[in-house]
Amino acid sequence: MQFWLIQTLNSLALGGLLFLLSSGFSLIFGLQRIPNLAHGALFMLGAYIGTSLLAREVDFWLAAPLAGVLVGLLGVALERLVLRRLAGNEQGQVLVTLGVAFIIADLCLLVWTGDPIPVPAPEGLRRPVFLFGFAFPTYRLVVLGIAVAAAIGLFLLMERTRLGAMIRAGVDDPEMARGVGIRVSGLFTTVFCLGVALAGTAGVLGGPILSAYPGLDADMLPLALVVVILGGVGSLLGAFVGSFVVSSIYNFGTALFPDLAYVILFLPMVLALVFKPEGLFGRVRA
Amino acid sequence: MERRTVLKGLAGAAAALAAPAVHAQPAPIRVGMLTVKTGPLASGGIQMENGLRIFLNDRGMRLAGRPVVLTVSDTGGVPAQARTKTQELVERERCQVLIGPLAAFEALAIDDYIRQAGVPIISSSAAAEDLTQRQPNPWFVRPVGTSAQCMHPFAEYAAKDLGYRRMSTIADDFAYGHEQCAGFQRSFEDNGGRIVQKLWPPLAVPDYGTYISQLKTNADGAFIGFAGSNGFRFVRQFNEYGLKGRLPLLGGMTAVDESILQQMGNDAIGIVSTNWYSAEIDNPANRRFVEQMRREHRQDPGYYSAGAHISGAVLEAALEAVDGRIEDKEAFMRALRTGRVEETVRGPIRFDQYGQSIGNVYIRRVERKDGRLVNSVIKVYPEVSQFWTYDPQEFLRNPVYSRNWPPARHLEN
């Protein structure tokens, strides 16, 4: 009983973090039709910027959005100066994001060295809470709460605002959206900025759990890919459900079938690609 | 004539004038180092280079009366690239001896080239057992430990000195983790203990939550065999789950390495671990090395930097034994393998017939001392061989240590 409870909590907490990472990835993928392979690197960059801000005694709850803004600005530059020039050349854009990922990773190594840097959880959230007789890290529950709040916020943005309507139109049919007078290229910049800013913020929020270390990018990117392919490209609901499905598969799978850790994680992605390429909730084929 | 050419000509003339002095110098010994300076393994790779440079600078870049030229190559931690770089060091830079590479999979990738080219190589960190066991390479010496060499005495310590009876193991799911755990299990169970749980998280897993909540808290302790920054993250998350103090952790060679220890903070205090080295070892060579590392790199030496430093000392001893004549490869190789090196930072070492070192193994406990975290030495096992107290022939007849060997007979569900 305790096993199921604690692994369920583990799944929910990891799912929350995955949603923060993959919601932006999904939006960018949906609108621009390219997987932003620099997403993991930008997540890691956010985590590293967070460690520097925290070292300068910036409050944790300020450091997270601030790192998001900085990473978001970098995203604007990346979209405007690089991706924009390759418009229409999707293969080129994907390769560019991969190149950028490597560049960011090496710059992080240069600036923050190769040693892992711990990110302390905010004061007051460092002790575990005791639920049903077992200890669970308080901070992980808080991350889950933040993820749910972010999901609601993003949902309102997408469903209730003009910007959201334009983004949805762009995801569904970019040509038609252009035809009715939506500046789709401007949307690209906005969504790319928003998406990578989310990744940067998630990097800081994930810090107390994951720390900042070289290789964090490569550890996280595949998870975002699995979430989005399973949930459906360009769909917030898909990213949300996908995050919790993937984290549950991961937690229960590795606990119940420890020898098959990676198979369990990536098999659903393969099955989704073969049998339901648009994912659970997607409207675009991955 | 272009100005550049004129300058070159002038430089040439200057060199010619200085030539008599240059000729009085014996030809330099060309040392090649294979390390990792980019990618996720770069932290250890940079420490390797620091360790070797400190050693060579300390000797004024001269060994056995000959100047030394060091060429450092970055393999990126990629086996194929390690191969290319090895070839480059040997064929283009004409290096006469190699130090490195960092990872076991790199060492395995260059193994056949080393045999074919016949170039002496000193392995400063790659720990794979079979490199000095079932597939020994005549050009290979390893002055540091195999994966399991320290684990045999450590498990005896856990069973006899700590009195542990039931233990869990959790380690990275790759050869280094498997070999460490297997050596620990064998010796622990031979000393009357039982391994009741074995967990294998994948090498690149950001979150250990699911594994930590499976750990048996009623065991006497858990052995952790992690590499790189994984130990750092595991211990943090372990404490996050409130397990510190409820389940003692015993660390393998790199779980609480000096290079990550300061960042680990109070999380690490009290963890007992094993290694063939500790920055706290009290001998003149090590005191000097620690002081130099702290001054030049603001860091205590650990697994990688100490391994490279010891490799330097082994190289020096062999060169002295052959009066610097590295050109006689066979004699130099013999000297590398048969010499006893008294003053390394890990204490005296000698080699067995497979090129593997026999030397001290240290049991350490993380403590805070003058405001910094250190691995205090609490027990020394002298003259530890890779075969421990087992008969070498019998040892080699068994399969190499792995995830499933020795078989775990006492797992509890």
UniProtKB/TrEMBL annotation, chain A:
Superkingdom of source: Bacteria
Bilayer topology term: Multi-pass membrane protein
InterPro entries: ABC_transp_permease, BCAA_transport_permease
Keywords in alphabetical order: Amino-acid transport, Cell membrane, Membrane, Transmembrane, Transmembrane helix, Transport
Coiled coil: none
Cellular compartment(s): Cell membrane
Transmembrane segments: 12-30, 61-82, 94-114, 134-158, 186-209, 221-244, 256-275
Stored CDD domains: TM_PBP1_LivH_like
UniProt similarity note: Belongs to the binding-protein-dependent transport system permease family. LivHM subfamily.
Name of the protein in question: Branched-chain amino acid ABC transporter permease
TrEMBL record, chain B:
Residue ranges of every copy of the Leucine-binding protein domain listed in the record: 28-369
Coiled coil (residue ranges): none
Keywords per UniProt: Amino-acid transport, Signal, Transport
InterPro entries per UniProt: BCAA_transport, Leu-bd, Peripla_BP_I, TAT_signal
PROSITE patterns documented for this protein: TAT
UniProt cross-references to Pfam families, sorted A to Z: Peripla_BP_6
Region forming the signal peptide: 1-24
Cross-referenced Gene3D superfamilies: 3.40.50.2300
Family label: Belongs to the leucine-binding protein family.
Designated name of the protein: ABC transporter substrate-binding protein
